[in-house]
Design goal:
Structural class: mainly alpha
Bound molecules: zinc ion
Number of strands: 5
Number of helices: 18
Strand order of the largest sheet: 4-3-5
Strand content: under 5%
Radius of gyration: 26 Å
Shape: elongated
Length: about 375
Amino acid sequence: MYALSQSALGVPVRPQNPYRILKARRGASPYREEPSTPLAEKAKSLEASLVTAFLKAVDVVNTQIPQGPLLAALETGSASEVLRVADVGTRIDQALRGKGIGPKEFSFTEAWTRVYQAGMQVAVEELANIPVSKALSEEVEKAAKKNKPAMTVGVQIALDVRSPESEAFIQTYLFDLIREVSQKTVEVIRAVILDGFTRGTGPIDTARDLRESIGLTATQSQAVMNFKSFLIDSRTDASVLREALSRELRDHRYDATLQAALNGKITLTRDQINKMATRYRERYRKYRAEMIARTETARAAIAGQNEVWRQALEQGLLHRERTRRVWLLAFGACDLCAEIPRANPDGVPLGQSFNSSDGPISDPPRHPHCRCGTGLKFLPRKRWEV
Ligand SMILES: [Zn+2]
C-alpha cells in the first residue's frame, strides 16, 4: 500500500478520486494534464476523429428510427413497444461498427483502430532511439556488436501491424466497449420514455426527448430533464431559474432570457423551453463524446504501444529481465497519477501492472482526463544478475 499524503495524525489519507470530482462538477476538470510523451501527444491529436465518429453514429441512429411508427408506439403507452420500434441498442451497436457510415468517413471502430495503429507507429519510432546494446538479450547483443553495432531496436523489429494478438485484442476490446455504450443507450431511452409517460408529455415531445437523448448517459439525461423541469416550473415560480442558471453546460446565449424570466419581466414560452433544453442536450452529448474520445484514444494508443513491445520482446529485441515499463507523468499530473512512479521506482516488467493505492493498474489513463503515458527503462546488468 502506498499512501499519498499523511494527515496530522500520521494516518494515510486517500486522495480523492478525480473522476468523482469531475462528475460532481459536471464538466469542469480539476486537473489540466497535458501530454508529456510523443504517444500521449499523438493520442490527443486524434481525439477529434473519435468525437466525430461517435457523434456520427448517434446521427445515423437518429435517421434510422422511423418517426411514424415511433409516434404510434408512444400512443400505445407501452414502453416495451417504444423500445422495440426505436431499437436503439442494436442500431447504435451497428452504427459504431460502421453500418450507415459513408465510405469517406471513419466509423468509431475504424477511428479507434487507427489510433491503436498510430500508437504502434510512435512506439516503433521511439524504439529507433534505443541502441541494441542497451536493450537486446545477450546472444543477439553479441551478434549485433560484431556486425552492426549502431543498430537500434526500432530498425531491427519485424513489425506485424495485424498480428493475431493485436487483432484479437482490438476485437475483444471494441466488443466490450460497444456493448457497454449500447446497453447504456437502451437504459437512457427507457428512462426517457418512462419519464414522458409519468409527466404526461405528448408523443411528439417525448419522441424529441428520446432522439435527443441518444448518446447521453442516464445521469446526463436526467440532468437535462431536471434542467427542462426548472424551465417549465418557472412559469409558476420563477425563482427555480436560479438553479437553471447555475448549470455549467447550459448555453450562455440564453442567459439574458433566463435572467429576464427570473426577474419576472417575461414568461418562458414552450418554444423557448424546448430550444434551451435541446441546446443543453447537444452540449452534453458533445461533452460525452469528448470524454469517450479522450479516454479511448489514450487506451488505444497505449495498447498499440504495448503490442509493439510484446513483439520486440518475442523477437528477442528487448531483454526480458532488464526491460522495464515506467509510468510517465503528464505535465500537471494529478496526485493520483503522481503516486504511481513513486510506488514503482524501477518500473514493472513488460506486461505487468503497476502498484497503486487502488490495487494493480495495467496502463494509463487512470482517470477520465489523464494524459500520462508509459515508456521503457533498462535496469543495469548487475541489478538482475545478482
Ligand atoms: Zn494521469
